[in-house]
Amino acid sequence: MTDATQAADATAEKPTPKSRFSRAWQSDFAWKFRHSPVAIVATLVMLVIVLSAIFAPLIAPHNPFDPSSLNLMNGFTPPGAANQFTGDLFLLGTDDQGRDVFSTILYGLRISLFVGVAAVLFAMILGVTLGLIAGYVGGWTDTIIMRIADIQLTFPSILVAMLIFGIAKGVTPVEYRDQMAIWVLIFAIGLSDWVQFARVVRGATLVQAGREYVAAARLIGRSGPAIMMRHILPNVLSPVLVIATISLALAIIAEATLSFLGVGAPPTQPSLGTLIRIGQGFLFSGEWWILLFPSVTLLALALSVNLLGDWLRDALNPRLK
């Protein structure tokens, strides 16, 4: 047998390397996802809602917050019926101002999702940072951080968010309150939700700090912040991602609750909570659709995110593998 033949046989026997997508598709995580109908349905529902919010200007038939496009004669048009005065047809009906409910839901979703995601990111960054410091440094630093967390846990999160929102809005100049309302809302919800991240990360850091790789990093002269960020943080991210997913649903509900109570998003930038508050005022006068459709949208969004978070918790739990 010639060298060329042997080389050809060796090449033919060598398996073709798999692409990254192929390896990811065949992983245990992807297998669990493909065999979980709940996770698939929750992901599809969440993707539809998120994409609808992102592309709201392209999907919405009207811009509900453009006064020039509103017609008061279209007010209180039932879903799927033509208005008796203008003849205009609206899929989900209109509210008292003649705004298309379908369009208001799409634009309200943008505010609710933005506030929820931004608040969770803020809470995650703050909680993970404090948890790493408390678990790695220990001593009085750990005691102070954890006692603050314990004190905050004794109060309901929504009350803490309302308190922080009221204080932050009070120190904001009057002329900037409407412009800063969304950012103040993000700050209030995020500051009321950092405790869960801090407690979980602190516990995981205490475990990782005693490992040999951390001792080796200290021996070669690595600084404390470098060890926390480069060595410990990557090993504690799995539970953080699960908490972030579940916290997203809670943050969206908290934003809707605050807006429903009138202390959240301003009327010029209504979220789903604001739309529900507006619709609640017309529930007993027969215009049920103004309340129903924003409520169902909020329920579908929160439920899909919660179900996906529960699945992630089970999929990433090493005890269930």
TrEMBL record:
It is found in: Cell membrane. Residues 109-309 form the ABC transmembrane type-1 domain. InterPro entries: BP-dependent_transpt_permease, MetI-like, MetI-like_sf, OppC_N. One of its GO terms (biological process) is transmembrane transport. SUPFAM superfamilies: MetI-like. One of its GO terms (cellular component) is plasma membrane. It is a multi-pass membrane protein. The chain crosses the membrane at residues 38-60, 111-137, 149-168, 180-201, 232-254, 288-309. It holds the Pfam family BPD_transp_1. Keywords: Cell membrane, Membrane, Transmembrane, Transmembrane helix, Transport. Belongs to the binding-protein-dependent transport system permease family. PANTHER family: ABC TRANSPORTER PERMEASE PROTEIN (PTHR43386:SF26), OLIGOPEPTIDE TRANSPORT SYSTEM PERMEASE PROTEIN APPC (PTHR43386). This is ABC transporter permease.
